[in-house]
From TrEMBL:
One of its GO terms (biological process) is fructose 6-phosphate metabolic process. Keywords: Aminotransferase, Glutamine amidotransferase, Repeat, Transferase. It catalyses: D-fructose 6-phosphate + L-glutamine = D-glucosamine 6-phosphate + L-glutamate. One of its GO terms (molecular function) is carbohydrate derivative binding. It comes from the Eukaryota. The chain holds residues 335 to 719 of 722 of the full protein. Residues 60-199, 231-375 form the SIS domain. The lineage of its organism: Eukaryota, Viridiplantae, Chlorophyta, core chlorophytes, Trebouxiophyceae. This is glutamine--fructose-6-phosphate transaminase (isomerizing). It comes from Elliptochloris bilobata. It is an enzyme of class 2 (transferase). Pathway: Nucleotide-sugar biosynthesis; UDP-N-acetyl-alpha-D-glucosamine biosynthesis; alpha-D-glucosamine 6-phosphate from D-fructose 6-phosphate: step 1/1. Its EC number is 2.6.1.16.
Amino acid sequence: SSIMKGGYEHYMQKEIHEQPESILQTMRGRVKFSRVVPKEGEAWDPYTERRIKLGGLAEYIPTIRRGRRLMFVACGTSYHACLACRQTMEEIAEMPVSLELASDLLDRRAPIFRDDMCVFVSQSGETADTMQALQYAKDKGALCIGVTNTVGSAIARSTHCGVHINAGCEIGVASTKAYTSQQVAITMMALALCEDSIRLRAQRDAIIDSLGTLPDKIRAVLKLDSKMLELAEQLKGEQSLLVFGRGYNYATALEAALKVKEVALMHSEGILAGEMKHGPLALVDEHLPIIVVATRDRMRGKMLSVLQQLRARGAQLIVLCNKGDSDIQDLCGKSCRLIQVPEVVECLQPIINIVPLQLLSYHLTVLRGFNVDQPRNLAKSVTVS
Ligand code: G6P
């Protein structure tokens, strides 16, 4: 089985380190990056040759565009991938987007209509809650789109159309490479939905170009492995760990906390930084370790003020920021620990940011002596509801 793990100790570790390749697989044959030099007499149009081709979705794009809203339905980490991409979807597909945890959608029997476009996101494609929600939406006459990692899975078979994320088999119960590939797939879907928009061209092309840089940047961020081991050494005896994020990176905070909970068996909570003053601030003291995701994006000013408020209460801060971010360094001083990551276009930054936090939860688990690939009480695919 060590051969199966490609020289790694655990599947989770292998799958974290596979992400430069798994992400590339998700994009392979679907994202066309290159500009083509125009033929003689033709005008140079730098935009025309950046294309997204999603075979399983192409003929449904006009229908999806005519829908009244996009509803994403998922559980666990797959739900976090939807949350991470919601803003991108709203901005570049310009459609109302709602998110549903499959079990909650079913509990509420929430209204769904024929002109709803429902996207079911599932690594395994077999999760019972998601599958039942799919059946429910289908009965309501909605168009059902699957985003799965498993060709031939129940969800892949029962949806009208979809995208396979092609991340390769994921064995560790805690989802890692599927999470980043799901984000790439949903972002590609958003790009495919706005292909005709001239107004959005510049933004769209910036995202496509940035997708092309992801594998190398993930390779770079994986080099933080030994730093994350060091941080895990410092944190392994803690009772609890908070993770703050907002905007694009609210999902990063929730997903990092889920990883710490489910594999390292340490209490952890992801907190929307905008809600800090409405409760969580009461928890802050000199003892509780807090990770703040503060990479550069349009939430900058607000994030700096969150950091200031946490500093003022003497919090034990660990700040995830972009490399060479001197504002953060100045603000946080020597006492605070930094996790420095490469920068990409803001809507893709969550794909980079989760990687060091996956490494942290992996090392915490090993140091605390728990089972990495099979956390107690959990299953890879929950096929009962
Ligand atoms: C289980 C797994 C999680 C996973 C969730 C959804 O709870 O332990 O890691 O995120 O199911 O699984 P799916 O296969 O639908 O993405």
